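> forwarded from #structure-qc
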């Protein structure tokens, strides 16, 4: 079902200036658009040279805001392509005056246009849409075409942390990570009944746990060649 446009969305986006950026490429074909670079200046954006982490598909920003508050010496860039959703995330950060998080309205396919190669310390993929129909597998954020993008923008040795409630999507992700040269560690098939410490619960995660669903989690990193 298509999400209904929020009332006064454009005005709300404008009111979040400083916390919310809208990045648009004139070329709507992402395969050719990535040849045109317009990199974000992280130092200008955050006002410091601290390491930058990226969350892709941030939803309403609960995870991004909380991890930023817990780690003031790191910067967090949170990406979401749905304006109705990301405006709520930016409003959350602005309301709490969190200095080290910024939100970007942008589709993940276009990230190489705006993020310099090997500039990201780590990536978080929290409860990405599993796109269960086989015809839409290339839309999954752990599909090979996205993993190639992550390889391009991640610093050497950086990690990708994934959480999902969907077992089939998790199995698919493991296969794709492995196929693309990533090694895996700290794999959990039931995160909330494990000894893992420091988990930040997202809005979707709270809902799934309340329903008694297990949460799957992994950490992926590139093997040394």
């Amino acid at each position: 079902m298509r999400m209904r446009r929020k009332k006064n969305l454009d005005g709300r986006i404008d009111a979040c200036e400083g916390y919310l950026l809208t990045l648009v490429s004139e070329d709507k074909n992402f395969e050719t658009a990535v040849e045109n670079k317009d990199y974000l200046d992280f130092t200008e954006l955050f006002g410091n040279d601290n390491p930058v982490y990226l969350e892709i598909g941030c939803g309403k920003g609960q995870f991004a805001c909380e991890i930023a508050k817990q780690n003031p010496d790191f910067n967090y860039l949170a990406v979401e392509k749905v304006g109705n959703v990301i405006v709520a995330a930016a409003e959350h950060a602005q309301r709490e005056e969190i200095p080290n998080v910024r939100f970007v309205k942008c589709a993940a396919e276009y990230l190489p246009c705006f993020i310099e190669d090997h500039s990201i310390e780590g990536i978080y993929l929290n409860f990405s849409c599993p796109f269960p129909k086989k015809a839409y597998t290339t839309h999954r954020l752990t599909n090979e075409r996205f993993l190639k993008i992550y390889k391009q923008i991640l610093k050497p040795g950086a990690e990708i942390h994934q959480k999902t409630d969907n077992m089939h999507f998790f199995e698919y992700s493991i296969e794709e990570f492995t196929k693309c040269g990533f090694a895996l560690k700290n794999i959990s098939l039931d995160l909330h009944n494990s000894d893992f410490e420091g988990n930040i619960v997202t809005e979707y995660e709270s809902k799934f746990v309340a329903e008694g669903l297990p949460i799957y989690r992994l950490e992926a990193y590139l093997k040394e060649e």
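QC bot note: DSSP finds nine helices and eight strands in the chain. The first strand starts at residue 20 and ends at 22.
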